[in-house]
Design goal:
The chain is built from four helices and ten strands; from the N terminus they run αβββαβαββββαββ. With 180 residues, it is of the alpha+beta class. The strands form two sheets. The chain has a five-stranded antiparallel beta sheet with strand order 2-1-4-8-7. Strands 3-10-9-5-6 form a five-stranded mixed beta sheet.
Amino acid sequence: MQFIIIFIFLIIGLFKCNTNELKIDSINPCEFVNESGNCEIPLIDKKEYSYQITKDLKVDNMNQLSNYLYFKSRVSSGFIIKFNRPFLYEELDEIKSTFKVYYNFSGTTGKIENVEYGNDYIYSYVYIGTILREKNKEKKEDVKNISKSLNLSFPGVFSYESSLFKGNINTNQEIIINKD
């Protein structure tokens, strides 16, 4: 019986010794990641979204626009970190307990709560409507009416860190609004 227990610990020890060090393979801006960890909608150098807002939608000020972008269009900005191998249980537990992500879009900052952990990736994202809502709170822009058209630029930086790694990634998105 003792031989079996020693053998099991020996095998586990050898497995851990033969595991490659966890390293980041790639970091890419991404709007949507599927369940397999593949980026379905990459964020290119400057991604543009164009919306035609009809009168029946009642989007007349910045607060209403942020609600529209959050609840109706669901446009997000985010990134995926891919690793060189699947996480070990201990690594994933450590990452989940220490991983934090912050955004800074045109001077508006906040913590990202939307984080998905896969077998060998981490995907973090924030809705553009959320950023616009926070920007409105900071700058009291809610009183501004939206005329016939509006261009909103969202150059941004994501900062991420855990006890195992840290870094930054840049993105740039533009929202173009046209009203009837």
